[in-house]
Amino acid sequence: MPVPRPLDLTLEIVPRARFDLVDLRASLPRSHTDALASYPNCLYCSFHTTAGFFDRSLASRLAHEQGFNAYMEAFRAIFPEGAGYEHDRLERRAELSPAQRASEPRNADSHLAFIASGLRTCVSYPNRPDQPVFFVELDGESDGRRRTRRTRIVGYHDEREVASFKVDVPVSAHPVDSINLKDPRLGLYERIQDEIARTGIGKGRVRLALHAGERHAGLAINEHETLLMRHDLAEVLRDPLRFAIEKGRHALADPRAVPGKTLGYAQYDLVRILNRLVEVLGLGESRVERMLARTMAVPLSRFLRMKRSVSLLISADDGTGAPMIVEGTYQSPIMVQWNRASRRSRVLDVSVTRLR
Q1: Cα–Cα dist 139/197, whole Å
Q2: What's the distance, CA 26 to chain centroid?
Q3: Is 4 helix (H, G, I), strand (E, B) or coil?
Q4: Are 217 and 336 in contact (CB under 8 A)?
Q5: Hey, which residues does 62 pair with through a beta bridge?
Q6: Tens digits of per-residue pLDDT, 53-107?
Q7: What number is the average pLDDT over the span 302-319?
Q8: CA distance 132 to 52
Q9: Residues 159 and 354: beta-carbon distance below 8 Å
Q10: What is the DSSP string of 279-327?
Q11: CB–CB of 214/338 below 8 Å?
């Protein structure tokens, strides 16, 4: 009996608040649940830069909704809403039209919390209806209006690698830097598209991973906007603890700029935030002390949970029907570094897999 082809479904979500945890499995209509029942695995994809998923290893450590909430609460406290981020100075955003400036949300805090907490836009889970898969929303409401979010769920049986290659990504001599891996000058997307065409993939996944020898760097998928990357994120990379303290003070200095519900986050003692974070991750008291000591000495490597790999969905383009990388309008894979590379480039391992 032939194995059924992967099933690709779209689900729209309306968050209940600016921050929300939505169990996608519980939100699926019965028709979707029945259609996915025969598939042992599901790939979940978000097309937004402030909403995504926990990877399976972190989800298993957090264990339940209370743990998920506590984990994200720590990062939302570190990046309080309305705390004078450069990304939120819309008058400086040259890429926005006057109409866009009037409606664009001021959401730098959501972008930074997404990146720092290690949320992913594309994850795979075993298809077990009794286990939740949480869609984590960090910017679900703007000016009192709830936003509509879109996710894709792909049911599949197995996954096989069909192509792999390495890419040298040029980096600057600056210790803190971010590189847009979608930049046409790098040629990465063109190379991936050639492999998609050569292998004839209908449904699949691209995995971008830092080579085993790379240190002091991470990967994320987010908006590569100049002020966000070159100012806000760069400040975090240089000294996340000082950044959090300064932003918290800024929020308290101008409470009118911060929604009332956020003032509580801004008043958190930073050590308490970090203690709570490691507590949620299941570390013991002595390890908390050691972690805090290391955090003060080497902030980013212990403080932020950036990933060494990211994934992108391969599926049919809505317009042409041809298989390609499918992603949101503002999504880009981004490599960041917080210390100089040993040479003026870093190695990226790229694999292309077929979902069956």
Answers
A1: 36
A2: 22
A3: coil
A4: yes
A5: none
A6: 999 988 888 877 788 888 898 888 888 888 889 999 999 998 899 998 888 999 9
A7: 83
A8: 14
A9: yes
A10: HHTT--HHHHHHHHHHHHHSHHHHH---BSEEEEEEEE-TTT--EEEE-
A11: no
